[in-house]
Design a protein that fits this description.
The complex is a heterotetramer, with 2 copies of chain A and 2 copies of chain B.
Chain A lengths: L6 H17 L2 H10 L4 H9 L8 H14 L1 H8 L5 H7 L2 H12 L5 E4 L15 E5 L2 E12 L6 E7 L13 E7 L5 E5 L11 E12 L3 E2 L5 H40 L6 H28 L6 H26 L1 H4 L3 H8 L9 H14 L5
Parallel strand pairs in A: 1-4
Antiparallel strand pairs in A: 2-3, 3-7, 4-5, 5-8, 6-7
Chain B lengths: L2 H18 L3 H7 L3 H9 L18 H14 L1 H20 L3 H9 L4 E3 L14 E3 L7 E6 L2 E10 L14 E15 H9 L2 H25 L1 E2 L2 E2 L4 H21 L5 H24 L2 H4 L7 H14 L4 H11 L7
Parallel strand pairs in B: 1-3
Antiparallel strand pairs in B: 2-5, 3-4, 4-5, 6-7
Classes of the chains: A alpha+beta, B alpha+beta.
């Protein structure tokens, strides 16, 4: 049993920290928040500087954590162009990996994941977007909602229905994954504005109006799409846990700094506020350990859905808890500094990539089946 | 709730349904329009609690709080606007003998901003500072060197949207002062803030009700995994618990009196509003995260108002001391 | 609280101070003595809520609940004893036309146990089962095959101390039945349990007050690191918050009516009592862990009573349905 | 980074589990709870069977966890005869280690730790028991409260005041540790009865009435007692975390079993109850990870007080949370089975070896000083 990261990863963490502190200035963060503008220049800079390294999942995770610690909106934006890539990596043909994935890794393309639908939320299997086979094409109709990078990505790994389920109650059958390009005819997107937080990220609704998709853009096998996506969520949830740990740590940093400076100024700091600091610190530490454990299973090719859901569920609740507690502790100071942005950003953690409720369903199902977090 | 109070609640509700409901989102995006401030005056909201000598309606505490409660259900910004005029600005002006200016405020021809950041425990005596910025406005009340000042000058509106009370343009606004007049010592303002625990509670509870009602309605219609959300026990039970707590506190608001009890309600309704609005947002899923759905504003405002109106240290210490009957909670 | 109710509260308090306070620890260790049951009768507690035709005092709901609330402050066992006779046993007997036996119970010459384990959602229709065992007693009310039975026979008291209501000998007692009589369908008993939400709330709130008052007093005198505990903000603030919540709910208990509101109060006061008693124990430190200090009994009883009186699923579902106005919370 | 225990420890864990399930029958547990009787036969059996191995702290920790999982009262009783030993081990003279410690390891003696005083609680430095030097003896007067093993241990490692503090505000100076034997003249103890839980453990008040302590029973140096005891708490808190994790896991086991059996019987289990199961499981897992991390620092001779206090504080709150939630979920079933004993036992975790409040003070102090859990 060993709780230390290898030296190279510790070094990497430090580099990302330096990069984020240097590049994610308050001015930059505030501007992208106010204007709801995607920071494309930061995405490029991060990629060029070698900070972003999607080939090592440990680095991806630590990079997300450290960037979100400085600014969640910018941090997520810089690390999300690859979102959904694991599906292509694990199940895409050589053709698809070459045509699409390789260009994402080099920053020439951005990608997105199209799963959620309007009114669908966590109920993935209930989706309505349909792809009908017609010759060597699929004809795609429907829409997707809350799609990250929806207005800017070049293509989307998209879950669609290619067949009715053979048994009506098994709605997760008959789903497939297609790669849909933005410049395919009939594709359009509407940017969603007025988000509470993570406003630097781009979110949109996608609309498919008789979009023709070449047959070779089918990822893996027809009918297996649901399993591919669930497998992906088991991966991506660890990264959401990393976003959450970053937010929690960022809020904790600010409260520690605030209380210490109060004391230095001779303003007495009450036990009440110190206790809140302790609770934030303890929950953040616990979240990070759950994340590490989930990662150490997952990145060693023995994913454990129980611990993954625990990590995502607990860390996201901790992010919201820490940001809110930080606001409470710092009062007017929090309201007039970047802390309020952390507070707004944090709430989405409990919602995307499976709400807290969905994580609890997964955990209890595994537990009652006799699987545990070991 | 007696008949008179119920009637007041019904009337304000009717006004809100007609005049605010569909516009509440515009308030958030663009600020409350001037016409609305006129409507508040015409409805008798401005001055509702003040003596007739000041042109007020002399409503009792509960009647006044019914207005704040209802307004907060639809727009916490609107409720805070009425509160800050009736409970802070007008009494300050009147206390300083500036009855003419008070009259202008009552009529709506003059509007005055509040520099929130240094009213209570805030550290920010710097410029720009967090303030309301009710445009068009040339006046600002702020605290400086222990004095409450009425400053006349020019606002420079902040770019950045604030966390809360967006309808009032709260943010890191700049203000270029041209002249200033003393309205009293800082203590007189603190007394007004501390003496309006019931009013502040009314706003916290009203906005909680606004958020919870939305959640109840949404969970009736939104389906997941083939069933409406309300059919799931964790959703239905949690919302029921929150509605129950709201019921106890609302009943308390409209049937009890006294300083200690007001402090109790303020402390707990402030905490409660954060909890209730957070759950209300959560049960809206991704849609809750979007301005359009009108639930995230309650979440933001509950936290912003907690910081603006509630002193997490001072008020809780005051409450503890009233319960223990002696110095306590100071370590 | 009106004058009459206040007087009732004062009277019961006086009785408790004189007759229960110093003996409460003995109740826990040895059970409530027979003399005390006689005292309850003499005070008019037994039958307080019942019609005069049954020999009752016809107190209104609030007056009756004032008795339960006060008793629970000193001894939750005593409160539950009065509740189970007045709200369950006597109405059952009367409903079955067994007025003679009811009269004996009123006089205290017959005492009847309640097999708690299978009254509500319990699964235990086995023997021994969790029951009160008010000695000397030869009667037991239990549920079997959907019927409520009055059984006559012999108790075999359990060795093991139960978690809660030790004053009533609650535990896995055995009962050797000699004869039994049907008192009605199970539904009639459920109706009585569900129809007494206000009474159950009174017990939850009273015991919470008992625990919190003890914590307030203890934190005034107990010093740590040179200061009394009450001087520390986490202690003073948390207790103030709990006292505030208690105040809202107690006010609700004594000024509202109605089935839905009773259900709301029961759900929340049951949760609250567990939280309040846990904090009260914690602030007593190691001493709180000892029977002698009289605070751990509230902690135990709050949990035991939650299991005995509150159906975490059924009651919350009923509450949710009353709020939604339709089926909900069943998944 | 590695979250797996070495195979020998996994094997050891299994052995303890088997031992506990075999020996800690419900009848035994209930009897010792009812009678408030220390299970001396189980202490001996555990020692003889080789299950108890105080020489390996990992084994001690895992043993405590697994035993408390089956029954907290018996589990603590069987593992507590060694309580306070680390002080002698680290600072005792060869003479003291030979005379006392070696006999505890072989089960010939039991020991206890005398720190807390009546009305003293967590405020260790405020203690009033005094030892005055007189020739080659100390004369001891005062009393100790809530002493585990107080009525049965053969000797106590006892913190006493040997000198007034040189600076009045530095009350922790002038304290020393003495070994006090039960059979020294003037020593007496009063067993405390009527405990809420862990009733199989023995708890007593110790009274010292002019007890003569030979000079050689001084542990380490005079005046350093406070530091020795604080150092010890940094160790023992990890073991309290283990007790807590055991209790939490035990409650979780019972709820999992209860809900699964309900489902097997065809009784629908609501999402509400499943969510509670998930929360219990997640918090238990997080507690265990914090404990492991604290242990991995401590047992490698680089103790980290922040993570230790996090582990103890969080795990103890989790024990109480899980036991209470289990009661709520199981209702009448919990009330009439051993779950109610777990509920009573759990509460002491938040109180002994530093209340939850004390842990929070430690954490916030370290954080504001710039120390973290790394």
């Amino acid at each position: 049993m060993d709780f230390d990261l290898p030296a190279d990863l510790e070094e990497y963490r430090k580099q990302v920290r330096e990069f984020s502190l240097r590049e994610f200035t308050e001015e930059t963060a505030m501007m992208h928040d106010i204007k709801e503008k995607y920071p494309d220049e930061l995405r490029k800079k991060a990629l060029e500087s070698g900070i972003i390294d999607f080939s090592n999942p440990w680095k991806t995770m630590l990079g997300i954590e450290e960037m979100c610690r400085v600014d969640p909106g910018l941090g997520i934006s810089a690390t999300v162009p690859y979102f959904g890539a694991e599906i292509l990596m694990l199940h895409g043909s050589d053709y698809l990996r070459e045509k699409y994935l390789s260009k994402v890794a080099t920053g020439k393309m951005m990608m997105g994941l199209g799963v959620t639908e309007p009114g669908g939320g966590s109920d993935v299997a209930g989706l309505k977007t349909s792809a009908k086979k017609s010759g060597n094409h699929y004809i795609l109709n429907g829409s997707k909602m809350f799609i990250t990078n929806g207005g800017i990505a070049d293509f989307f790994v998209t879950l669609v229905r290619t067949a009715e389920p053979d048994v009506p109650s098994k709605r997760h059958r008959g789903l497939s994954v297609l790669v849909v390009e933005r410049n395919f005819k009939g594709f359009s997107s509407n940017k969603l504005t007025g988000k509470l937080g993570v406003r630097a990220t781009n979110t949109a609704e996608l609309i498919f109006d008789n979009v023709e998709i070449p047959q070779e853009n089918l990822v893996g096998e027809e009918g297996k799409g649901f399993y591919y996506v669930m497998e992906f969520f088991n991966i991506s949830r660890v990264f959401v846990a990393a976003q959450s740990v970053g937010i929690a740590q960022g809020a904790l940093d600010m409260v520690t700094e605030y209380l210490s400076s109060q004391e230095k100024k001779g303003v007495p700091v009450s036990e009440e506020l110190k206790f809140k600091l302790s609770e934030m610190a303890t929950r953040t530490e616990a979240s990070r350990l759950l994340m590490y454990k989930a990662a150490s299973y997952l990145f060693n090719y023995k994913p454990n859905p129980t611990i993954t859901s625990m990590a995502k569920g607990y860390a996201s609740e901790t992010a919201a808890f820490c940001a809110e507690t930080a606001m409470e502790v710092t009062g007017m100071t929090g309201l007039s500094t970047k802390l309020e942005r952390f507070f707004r950003d944090s709430k989405i953690m409990e919602i995307w990539e499976g709400t807290s409720e969905v994580e609890k369903i997964v955990i209890s199902r595994m537990m009652m089946r006799g699987d545990s977090s070991e | 709730m007696n008949e008179q109070l119920q009637m007041m609640m019904d009337n304000v509700k009717q006004f809100c349904e007609q005049a605010i409901k569909d516009q509440a989102i515009t308030f958030e995006r663009e600020g409350i329009p001037e016409s609305m401030f006129q409507a508040f005056r015409d409805q008798g909201f401005i001055g509702a609690n003040l003596p007739s000598s000041m042109g007020g309606a002399e409503l009792d505490r509960q009647g006044y709080d019914a207005i704040l409660f209802r307004l907060a259900e639809y727009s916490p910004s609107a409720a805070f606007y009425v509160y800050m005029n009736n409970s802070i600005i007008l009494p300050l002006l009147s206390g300083a003998g500036m009855n003419d200016l008070a009259g202008e405020v009552m009529k709506g021809t003059v509007r005055i901003g509040l520099a929130s950041s240094n009213l209570l425990e805030g550290t920010g005596d710097h410029d720009p500072f967090l303030s309301t910025a009710v445009f068009p406005s040339e006046h600002m009340i702020k605290v400086e060197n222990g004095k409450v000042l009425l400053v006349r000058g020019k606002f420079q509106h902040a770019d950045r949207k604030s966390l809360g009370l967006r309808g009032l343009g709260v943010g890191m606004n700049s203000f270029e002062a041209e002249e200033s007049k003393e309205l009293g010592r800082k203590e007189s303002l603190e007394k007004l803030m501390l003496g309006s625990s019931w009013e502040q509670s009314a706003i916290f509870l009203g906005l909680s009700k606004g958020a919870l009602d939305k959640a109840i309605e949404y969970t009736k219609v939104r389906k997941t995994f083939n069933y409406p959300l309300k059919d799931y026990s964790p959703v239905a039970f949690r919302l029921s618990e929150l509605m129950s707590d709201l019921e106890f506190m609302t009943h308390f608001l409209f049937s009890e009196e006294g300083e200690q009890k007001g402090l109790m309600l303020k402390a707990r309704s402030s905490d409660f509003s954060r909890k209730a609005t957070k759950h209300a947002l959560q049960y809206h899923g991704g849609y809750g995260y979007l301005e359009d759905f009108g639930v995230e504003k309650f979440y933001r405002d509950s936290v912003a108002l907690s910081s603006l109106m509630f002193r997490p240290e001072g008020d809780k210490k005051a409450l503890a001391e009233s319960i223990y009957g002696s110095k306590s909670g100071y370590l």
